[in-house]
């Protein structure tokens, strides 16, 4: 098993970290409603992330987005150091959440500290996914208008 693969049988589902890779047998056995269907891809450019920071990102994503797992297909996180060694507000975190049957949610936040940029981007992504998913839930399943009432009267 890959070091970034999470054992799906022992981890609690409520706030478990989102895995980077799902084993093929587990992927085939999962259903559309399975919370283990969601993967999180973390990419870095210009900055360095150690294993501890990658597990922090996976854990935070699990806490923020696990409740929407049935609507999410995949999550991509990109962390970049924009200005390099010059300093300033140069840590950027971009989160892209691909939703099933809805447009993707893309959130980008910048901050001087990497952890703050990641936290604010995850918070904004959670709010955006909640808003977009809520709109889908508010749509009526069938078109029921007053026209059906007029024909009966």
Structural overview:
This protein has 153 residues and is an alpha+beta fold. The chain has a single domain (24-152), classed as Double Stranded RNA Binding Domain (2-Layer Sandwich). The protein contains four helices and four strands. It has helices at residues 24-29, 51-65, 114-138, 146-152, and strands at residues 39-45, 72-81, 91-99, 105-111. It has a four-stranded mixed β-sheet with strand order 1-2-3-4, covered by helices on one side. β1 (39-45), α2 (51-65) and β2 form a beta-alpha-beta unit. α2 runs parallel beside α3 (114-138). The radius of gyration is 19 Å and the shape is globular. 20% of the residues are buried. The model is unreliable at 1-12 (pLDDT under 50).
Task: Tell me the layout of helices and strands.
Elements lengths: L23 H6 L9 E7 L5 H15 L6 E10 L9 E9 L5 E7 L2 H25 L7 H7 L1
Parallel strand pairs: 1-2
Antiparallel strand pairs: 2-3, 3-4
Helix pairs in contact: 2-3
In brief:
With 153 residues, the protein is of the alpha+beta class.
Helix fraction by DSSP (H/I, runs of at least 4): 25-40%
Class per helix and strand makeup: alpha+beta
Q: Tell me which CATH architecture applies here.
A: 2-Layer Sandwich
CATH C-level class is Alpha Beta
Order of strands, main sheet, comes to 1-2-3-4
Given the structure, what is the number of helices?
4
The CATH homologous superfamily name equals: Ribosome hibernation promotion factor-like
* Secondary structure: number of strands: 4
**Shape by Cα distribution:** globular
Q: State which percent range the strand residues make up.
A: 15-25%
